[in-house]
Amino acid sequence: MNLQNRLPQDSYENPLAIAHGINPRHWISEKAKAYSYFTNGFPEDFDKLEVEYHHPENGWLSTVFYKNGEKQLDVPLNDWNDPLVSIVDWLEELIEKHEDLNNKTLHIDCDLGLHFVLHYEPLNARNVEYGILFIYGSWTEDYEESCFSVFCTKLDIINAIYTPMIKHWIDLSEKFSRGHSEDWHDWGLSFKSIDCPKEMLQYIRRTSIESYLQMRFPTLNL
């Protein structure tokens, strides 16, 4: 019996899928491929994760992930389902919930059949502060790097994703207030229209995350 051919692709039918619309065979095979990089043990140093946010345009926000200085994945976030709010919600869970972190998977439907996943797995049940972050994009199925892994700490993840996000929207807000609106092209929330970038900060800035970061980076200024 070929079990692979019997697996339904729809997550409503298949418990192996992490979200509706994602091919479970692809996700599992790509995650296994990422794990294979650690078959001979873990590196002495943590990987460096960096995230770059581009200017929003017509409801789309290009978000680029880098590992050790090399570009890995360009995520086309779409504002129709509030991806930035979902991301900071997930980051708060990494801080506040220490148990069952293996189940803390963030799935974002980017519209047009595009799916983005962040999945963190701690490597030690007694110390959940370091582990592997899996970053997956279903739209890259025909390419070699559709999923990549980062060996890092929770602090690395939160700092790399949250800090540039907030700085980016502060920068957009300041430019907009000075009359430079060319970098602001239609970004909103599913429940509310956004007239200027400053409004978006009300929904993505989190006291819990910034307190967590400032305890570890006293000179951090957001």
Structural class: alpha+beta
Beta content comes to: 15-25%
Shape: globular
Low-confidence stretches: 1-16
Measure the end-to-end span: 57 Å
Largest sheet: 4 strands, antiparallel
Which bin fits the share of residues in helices?
25-40%
Number of helical elements: 6
| Major β-sheet strand ordering | 4-5-6-7
What's the number of extended β-strand segments?
A: 7
Summed over residues and divided by their number, the pLDDT gives a mean of: 79
| Element-level helix/strand string | HHEEEHEEEEHHH
What is Rg? 18 Å
Describe this structure in words.
With 222 residues, the protein is an alpha+beta fold. The chain is 32% helix and 25% strand. It has 6 helices and 7 strands. The strands form 2 sheets. Strands 4-5-6-7 form a 4-stranded antiparallel sheet, sandwiched between helices. α4 packs antiparallel against α5. The longest helix is centred in the C-terminal third of the chain and has 24 residues. The protein is globular and about 55 Å long. The N terminus is likely disordered.
